[in-house]
Amino acid sequence: MAPYDAALRFVAEVDTDVEAQRLEIPTATDGVVPFERFGRVHLGDVGSLDVWWLASYGGGVWLPLRDRNPDTYGGGRYLLDTVKGADLGGEVDPATGRGTLVVDLNFAYNPSCAYDERWACPLAPVGNVIDGSIEAGELLPAG
Fold this sequence. Notes:
mainly beta, eight-stranded antiparallel sheet, 0% helix, single chain
């Protein structure tokens, strides 16, 4: 785990003015897993990331990230996956209907497929890839 960096914690407004997009990710264990893009968060100099809704079983917000840090899982890491309880909070302003998400890159974690090839994981799509290297969160597992 990289040291905590307070500058990598954001309370980001969810920009919902995005074109609808649907991902259908085939997996060996869960069949086809559908996601629908419902917004985008802007994280200062880090860049912008698409925010997805898991459109099956438990539902939930999914926010993956793939960066250029060679010490992290190459398929990307997850920042939020609310169906599995990875949620740092957020809120909706009742007056405007606009919502925010707490996005803390210090809590980026590897998907289960980083640890065992038997697991099939949805990996970060194009709108969740940034050019920079995030020196925060979970690093590659040893070995």
